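User: Before I run my own analysis I want an independent prediction to cross-check against. Here's the chain; please return only the structure tokens and, at the end, one sentence I can use as a sanity check.
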Amino acid sequence: MGSMIHSARKAILFHLEERLEAELAACLAAASCHVQRYPAASSAVSGDLVFCTTGPAFHAAKAMFPHLPVIVVSRLPETDEWLDALEAGAADYCAAPFEMIHLRWLIETHAGAMRPAPLREQPRAASAAAA
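Assistant: Structure tokens:
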């Protein structure tokens, strides 16, 4: 059970500018998150969350990965861009320079939300249904 909570997450970097992608990939790898780039040499890409920029890349990522949280990435933090991204349906927003604590929070909050409930929670739900 503990291995599920600490298992490595996979992030898809979707059509990011080369330098921004390299910075984000290095930080995610340091946070023990596997990184896949899209487009990639391989056509098979899967992950737990997607990082992309706003505009057409964001809409393409939402269409291609409809069941994954999409986090908008920016070179410069701007409040308007952050609010626009959230209103458009982004799960979250992050900007360079990337901070490890923020990236870990994003990974656990958005990719971690996909974890099944711990077994100790299930009997409570079953006993409540029986009552």
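Sanity check: The first strand starts at residue 9 and ends at 14.
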